[in-house]
Amino acid sequence: MLEELVRLDKELFLFLNHLGNPSWDGFWLFITDKWSAIPLYLLLAIITYRVFGLKQLLLVLGSMALLILATDQLANFFKYGVQRFRPCYDLEIGESVRLVKASCGGKFGYFSAHAGNSFAVATFFTLLLGAKLRALGVFLVVWAMVVAYSRIYIGVHFPLDILTGALVGSGMASIFYQLFIRVRDRYNI
Asked: How far is Cα 176 from Cα 50, in angstroms, rounded to an integer?
């Protein structure tokens, strides 16, 4: 069963990866760049400040720093623990991968830290602000999905790497949001 799942994952990857077009490569390289999200992060900080004030903004920033650190390190733990090759290093399909950037990254790719971190941010802020700004939650989930897909588009992650990252990031965000609520309520922030 696991072999069948891996085979289907590779087939889906090749299909999605080959949808790429050189005229779109620059856009997807921009989306996948971790620095391209800085304006979004600044906007989320401004919204959080306006809705909750400075004290809660500082608590949110601390929570987000720990959330991203935890999600990123968990991704590294899995990458070196599971040791699933990235598509470009996979002996079965490596030659067929449409690799958009010069480097494929590290040898192992399970699970995607980009997907994990983007879904962690999207989930945390949806839980934090979703009741007041529903459209923001929808926007953040779509943004996280686009970032996650960019990893397939440029050729560095399989769909299961992305799905696992999205689930782990969302789960970690839920845990950290509950911790945020407890700290906020305990110390009347």
From this structure: 22
Distance CA 154, CA 172 (A): 26
User: Can you tell me whether residue 108 is helix, strand or coil?
Assistant: strand
What's the CATH number where 140 sits? 1.20.144
Q: Provide the domain limits for residue 143.
A: 2-186
* Mean pLDDT value across residues 12-22: 97
- Per residue in 118-144, pLDDT (tens digit) is 999 999 999 999 888 999 999 999 999
- Can you give the pTM of this predicted structure? 0.96
44 burial type by CB count under 10 A (0-12 exposed, 13-18 middle, 19+ buried): buried
Does pLDDT of 102 surpass 90? no
- CA–CA distance, 45 with 142 (Å, rounded to integer): 19
Spatial contact of 180 and 63, defined as CB atoms under 8 Å apart: yes
